[in-house]
Every structure is written in structure tokens, then in C-alpha cells.
Amino acid sequence: MEITIIGLPQSGKTTIFNAATRGAAQVATFANRTNLGAAKVPDERLDVLNGIFNPKRKVNAEVAYVDLPAAPEGLGKTRSIDGEYLNLLQRADAVLIVARAFDDPSVPHIADSIDAHRDIDTLLFEMTISDLEILERRLARLADGFKSAKPAERDALAKEQATLSRVMAELEAGVHVRDQSLTSDELRLLSGFQMLTAKPLVIVVNIGEDRLDDAPAIEARLTDEVATQKIRTAAICGKLEMELAQMDPDDEREFRDSLGIVGESGLSRLINLCYEALDLISFLTVGKDEVRAWPIVRGTSALKAAGRIHSDLERGFIRGEVVTYDNMVACRTLAEARKNGMLRQEGKNYIVRDGDIMHVLFNV
Ligand SMILES: Nc1nc2c(ncn2[C@@H]2O[C@H](COP(=O)(O)OP(=O)(O)OP(=O)(O)O)[C@@H](O)[C@H]2O)c(=O)[nH]1
Ligand SMILES: [Mg+2]
Description:
Blueprint: E1 2-7, H1 13-21, E2 35-40, H2 44-53, E3 57-59, E4 62-67, H3 83-90, E5 94-100, H4 116-148, H5 151-172, H6 184-191, E6 201-206, H7 215-225, E7 231-236, H8 238-245, H9 249-258, H10 266-277, E8 280-285, E9 290-297, H11 302-309, H12 311-315, E10 317-324, H13 325-331, H14 334-339, E11 344-346, E12 356-362
Parallel strand pairs: 1-4, 1-5, 3-9, 5-6, 6-7
Antiparallel strand pairs: 2-4, 8-9, 10-11, 10-12
Bound molecules: guanosine-5'-triphosphate (GTP) and magnesium ion (MG).
């Protein structure tokens, strides 16, 4: 699963990539390269389990992030996304848009003024245009195919034509594909085209370090004007978060305290929003060696979840022993959970839930 970061040139994409992945990719004027990295997904439950089990290691779930360079001609000027850049973007499982709100005279802006909401609209517009072009091309091909099609094939072609025309009309009216009501058959058809406005979307506004106090107000406006049920939004200070992420944990905590940042950091929240956007949940494993969170797509069966740990566990799967996180914390050992009847025996078709602690019994 991959989150791909896009945004106008110099909006802070690489800065936020570095913050999320605790990386040190070059932040520079038009550094023309793609950065790949993984972000650890913060999970307080792991910290608690770590305290109970005292294992050798604690392993967070990870999600891959891709930081694209600005589009060749400068995204926001091309009035559509195409070519190699479109191909890269189409591969994304979810898109993270970075919009600039920080003010810094030494960093140029293609529009010569700072307006995050305008830039978000520009990007959404470009994604929409790109999808319209995908649909136009497909419809043109269908029209050609129709002429040479045998009568028996015409029904299917006509049906596809009708669906695509309807999706296109809604898109022209400004309704992203992800917000359209589509049947599962239609969704299956559309998934082949990898349309950009069908992808889960997170929008982050990159605010200046001098506006940390305004973050709640900025987020409220985003919630009002941009967020939908399927578009998640947040405001974070990219530069500050990057600097914090590059410190060792003790210094980071001290620095955060000195800034008066309480509760979950903006960055943690952002990473969790992306996790949700991908529709990922975590199941947990515990033991002497490690406590660990494993990312799975919501709706994954115990059998497939076991396969995430190791293919042998899927191949030789017998059953899963499952206890909820809360019950685990209350009982503190699996033996105690078993004694109290809180360790359930689940078969291969059990749908694993977020926070399930699962021990897989297998035989190969
Ligand atoms: N003051 C301030 N500067 C920032 C912030 N975020 C990014 N910058 C600066 O803006 C410039 C561009 O940041 P990058 O993270 O490289 O932006 P980008 O979107 O990856 O840029 P391209 O890949 O070249 O399109 C750098 O000089 C950053 O230091 C911020 O929150 N505050
Ligand atoms: Mg960059």
C-alpha cells in the first residue's frame, strides 16, 4: 500500500515526506527526484503492550510514502496531469496533497501569492481534468469498437458506454468519482482506469512555524470547505515536524513540551489519517521477542492476516486464538485471558478487527 504525495512546486512535499518517514531526503529548490520511504504508524496500544510484555523489540505498522517531484511543466500550470507523471500517480493507493500556507519570501510560489485553498482547488481541478481525459479516450475507443463489433458484443459495449458517460457527466458537474454512487460492477469497471478522483485523498495544509496557534482555525475551515466523508484534511507545520522527526526521541519530547504542543502531534495525526484513508487497520501480535502491529485492509480474513506474518502461517493455518486489546490489557497474559474465557478460537474465515491480538496455530 502506497501513499503518493503531490502538490504545487515548493509547497513542502519533501519536507512533509521527511517528517513522516523520519528521513533526510534533499529539501531544495526543484530537487527533481522521487523519494521513497516508510512511515511508522504511531500506536499507543503497542506502547502499553510493550510495557506489559517487555519484548526485545516493538515493531510499528509501516506504510510506504512516495514523494514525487513537481510535475515536469510545473503542476498548476499544465491544466492537466499526463504522461509519465500521470502513470506514477495512477499507481498510488491513496493521494496526499500538500498545499502551501507558509509565508517565506525566499521560497518562490508559482502564483506569486499564498492561498492554500486556491491551490487545493487547482490540484483538484487538474485531477478532474485528467480523469475526464481518461474517460474521453476510453469513450472514443468504445465508439470505434462499436462499429466493428459483432451484435453479441454490442450489449456489453453499450452498457460500458452508458456508465462512462454518466460518470463523466457527474465529474463535469464537479462530483469526484469517489463521491459518486456506483454499483460494485461499475466500481470494478472503473478500477481498471485508475482514475485520480477515485482514489482516497488526504489534504494537508503546510502552515508556517509562526502560525502554530492558528492550526485549529485553519483545520476548521478545511473541514468546512474541503473535507467530505471521503476526503480527510489536516494542518501541520511541515518544517517544524521535519526538524522534530530528525531529533532523537528524548530531545524531541523536550522540544515539543517547550513549544507547548500537547497531545497527539500533527504528524501522528497525519500518518493516522493516511492509514485510515487506505482503509488499513492493525492486528497485533505479542510475545517475548516482539510486540507488533500488522497492517491489513479492513475486512481481511484470519487466514489472509496470518499470511501477512508468514506464508507458512497461511499455508498451514489451523486456527487463530484471538483476544481484544482491552481484554489483553486487563488480563496481562494470554494464559490469564484463556482462563477467563477471553481467548476466542477463530477459524480461517473470521474477519479480523482493529486491535485484535492474534496468535496463529499452524502446521506445515
Ligand atoms: N518557512 C517554512 N519553509 C518551508 C516549510 N515547508 C517547506 N519549506 C521550505 O520550502 C522549500 C521547499 O520545500 P520542499 O519540501 O523541498 O518542497 P517541495 O514541494 O518538495 O518542492 P519541489 O519538490 O521542488 O516541488 C524549502 O526551502 C523548505 O525549507 C514550512 O513549513 N515553513
Ligand atoms: Mg520535493
